[in-house]
Amino acid sequence: MMRAWLPAVILGFALGGSFDGVLLHRILQWHHLLSLVPGMDGLRLQILWDGYFHAAMYAVALVGLAALWRHRSVIGADPRRRLWAMLPVGFGLWHGIDAVLSHWVLGIHRIRDDSPAPLLWDAGWLIGFGILPAAAGLYVAMGPRGPEGRIGGITAALLALTVGMGIWAAQPPGDRRVASVVFRKDLTDAQIRDRLTATGGAILWQDAALSLVVVDMPAGGAWRLYGQGALLVAGGGLPAGCLGWRRT
Question: Looking at residue 43, what is its pLDDT?
């Protein structure tokens, strides 16, 4: 029979994976799921596998919610091991498994792929988001008093840190007005260049097919690209979305 605390650990595990994917893959863009896998150089392919990863985390969350509902009477009878006491344990467990398996055993990505000292980033992330939340959750679950106040403080701190890092990551590098733009596949290279020129944009970087370009835009110009065949525009005063600023 499943232990009373296990559903909450499963749910926390899914939350840890989703936190990792949203913050590191999408907002900060420090790595993708398969960043260091040979032959996975295309950005569209990397984003596709990030999507599979997120879908898997949703599936794990559904398993945790179903188990939590099934064992709700047992969890309610033991308040020290309720949902809020064990969520940080699952959250930390995800980051521990990710560090050991993904970073060091398989080597499919690191926390900062572009860092000259990736092990320091791996270790710091493991301590901050793996060991500390798991230890705090176990302390709350096994402590003599109710978990509400202490676990609420832990949750609020993690939320504040996530929001703060997201705001920091959304800022453009320096004073340059940079926008990342994905165009429709049916547009030719010449058409894309003409439309960028019409809006005052200058290409800073492009992929091989020119479907994804990074451009230097005048203030307010990024909005006009949606009328020129752009599917997604990130930066240049717009919300970061899936293609925010990447700090190198």
Answer: 78
